[in-house]
Amino acid sequence: MSSPPARGMDDPVTTSPSATQLRDFARLRRVRDRIDREYAQPLNVEALARGVHMSAGHLSRQFKAAFGESPYSYLMTRRIERAMALLRRGDLSVTEVCFTVGCASLGTFSTRFTELVGVSPSVYRRDAADATAGMPSCVARQVTKPIRNREAPDREPDLA
Helix 106-117 and helix 121-131: axis angle, to 10°? Predict the structure, then answer.
């Protein structure tokens, strides 16, 4: 009588998430939720990691594996999304928007904004109000959502 075939790593029965993996993913979701809630507060990876009892390095690696970007990148994307909404409103200066969304450096804010959106905050502020005029805010947010991970398209060179 032959024995049943051994179950390997490719077998779905043995590759289901372990309790530890599920617990870690729940902690990563709590970190992501905290970033979404507290994006305007001073947050850093060490503080986020302490809040879920992980080391900063482990949190960064696990967060990137789960969500495709580092916690810092995710935080900056949240801040830029909120900044875009405030700039579309048009009643705050770029500097006021920078500090309102939790950035401490106007230079870093402007650089990251330009990387994600493709134009500087001042150009966006000037042009965005007209581009989204008459749209409900929920639609405007989807249409103007920034592209993550430095994927903003290069602008065509001005040959004139």
Answer: 50
